[in-house]
Design a protein that fits this description.
single chain, alpha+beta, Amidase signature (AS) enzymes, 8-stranded mixed β-sheet, 3-stranded mixed β-sheet, 17 strands, about 15% strand, catalytic activity, Amidase_dom, Amidase
């Protein structure tokens, strides 16, 4: 096995081989650092790197095993954390010049859990400024580019994470998702991304711990790898008032299931609510045959989403005003225009506006629960477009319809966010230009296991995720 083969190996396989001492953590970390050195300049996915610290940690991991110590589920696996997640002793910039030299004095909870499971921190992955928007560029590090076509976007806000996974720079990746920030880059980069049920992965950071729009979650090149990382990230914590009690270890092993009789709803444009480029639908529509051949019963149907636009826009704007209002007052000129607009939208909200959105949010959740009593999963596009020109801030037109803000083109993802349901992005094929397209599989609230099992069965039947990018190396 060459180093490049090793870097594209499944995380579950790598972890098992390290535990059996067929591979050392040093070998695995060194191979990934070498690949980052050769490949990362073309895509700019990893933006902070600590090779010396990573190799020292890998040596300590090997010595721990040699002494007969127990190995955690991620023992020896290298990971670069999303640059919005606090990492002790390593800068966390949030993609903003205002934080370009910030070095936290502690790991936030999800980082702490991943490292406690044995993962080796190698660096940080790129994000949009303050993780705002589904295209990864910022004034600190520049633009992350798509490994399948470096002229195209890698998506966002977990774009650096998804690009690093696809390019073999790391075997697993953490991310977060408010309006599609795990699902969109997974779709754009031909990897797997899971937006969990709110509370599944607890968080103790941010200005509103009761928020259910923004969640943290895992990414991997396979469904099984994604489940492995979820098993480490998930589980209750008293600092998170919405955390779910089920232990993360319940997701440690997920295999494809028999889909005979599975009740599947298909909503190609979410009930006529979103425009979708024909090239995306041309990839996704034939995938229904795969589900039919696996024994599923498919109907065209969509949950109630009429209030989704107002709910998402209102609650997001409120969160932006809450989290970034002071920053706007102190450093308006240091913020990109889209963030200024979103914060100001939040400041224009009234108490009745928030009350209306909160009540509608509750109704949407109840409607979703009712919908998923009749269907096991919902299939829909992850993104309304294929990866677009990386020089744009966002797509200007979709299927002939103008997109006026940096949020408009993300509706296929953020309409799902407000349901309180988990959603999985799985590779579903490629456009004629060779650009990846993902399928969004949505399940009932707290039904992550069902999603992962369905995704694993679809993945095994198609193999779309096996296609790797042909990146130039230095």
């Amino acid at each position: 096995m060459t180093d490049d083969d090793l870097c594209h190996s499944d995380a579950t396989d790598l972890a098992a081989r390290i535990r059996r001492r067929e591979l050392s953590a040093r070998e695995v970390v060194r191979a990934h650092l070498d690949r980052i050195d050769r490949v990362n300049p073309a895509i700019n996915a990893v933006v902070t790197l600590d090779p010396e610290g990573a190799l020292a940690a890998a040596a300590a991991a090997d010595e721990h095993l040699a002494r007969g110590g127990e190995a955690g589920p991620l023992h020896g696996l290298p990971i670069a954390f999303k640059d919005t997640h606090l990492t002790r002793g390593m800068r966390t910039t949030h993609g903003s010049p205002l934080h370009a030299t910030d070095v936290p004095d502690h790991d936030e909870l999800l980082v702490e859990r991943i490292r406690a499971a044995g993962a080796i921190r190698i660096g940080k992955t790129n994000v949009p400024e303050f993780a705002a928007g589904s295209h990864t560029y910022n004034p600190v590090f520049g633009t992350t580019r798509n490994p399948y076509d470096p002229t195209r976007s890698a998506g966002g806000s977990s774009g650096g994470a998804a690009a690093a996974l696809a390019a073999g720079l790391q075997p697993l990746a953490d991310g977060s998702d408010m309006g599609g920030s795990l699902r969109n880059p997974a779709s754009f980069c031909n990897v797997v991304g899971l937006r969990p049920t709110p509370g599944r992965v607890p968080t103790e950071t941010g200005s509103n711990l009761w928020d259910t729009l923004a969640v943290a979650g895992p990414m991997g090149r396979t469904v099984a790898d994604t489940a492995l990382l979820l098993s480490v990230m998930a589980g209750p914590d008293p600092r998170s008032p919405i955390s779910l009690e089920e232990p993360g270890s319940a997701f440690r092993t997920v295999r494809e299931r028999d889909l005979t009789g599975l009740r599947v709803a298909w909503a190609p444009d979410l009930g006529g609510r979103v425009p979708v480029d024909p090239e995306v639908l041309a990839v996704l529509a034939p995938q229904l045959r795969v589900f039919e051949e696996l024994g599923c019963r498919i109907e065209e149907a969509c949950p109630e989403l009429d209030a989704a636009e107002d709910v998402f826009r209102t609650l997001r704007a409120h969160e932006f005003a809450l989290g970034l209002g002071d920053t706007l007052d102190a450093s308006r000129d240091a913020l990109k225009a889209s963030i200024v607009w979103n914060v100001e939208e939040g400041r224009r909200l009234t108490g009745p506006d928030l009350a209306r959105a909160t009540a509608a949010h509750s109704r949407l959740h109840l409607a979703a629960v009712d919908f998923f009593s009749r269907y096991d999963v919902l299939l829909a596009p992850v993104s309304q477009v294929a990866p677009f020109d990386a020089e744009l801030e966002y797509p200007q037109v979709i299927a002939g319809q103008a997109q006026h803000t940096y949020l408009d083109w993300m509706r296929s993802a953020y309409f799902v966010s407000v349901l309180g349901a988990p959603a999985l992005s799985v590779p579903a094929g490629f456009t004629p230009e060779g650009l990846p397209v993902g399928m969004q599989i949505v399940g009932a609230p707290r039904a992550e296991r069902t999603l992962l099992e369905v995704g694993a069965a679809y993945e095994a039947a198609t193999g779309h995720g096996l296609r790797r990018p042909g990146l130039p190396v230095a």
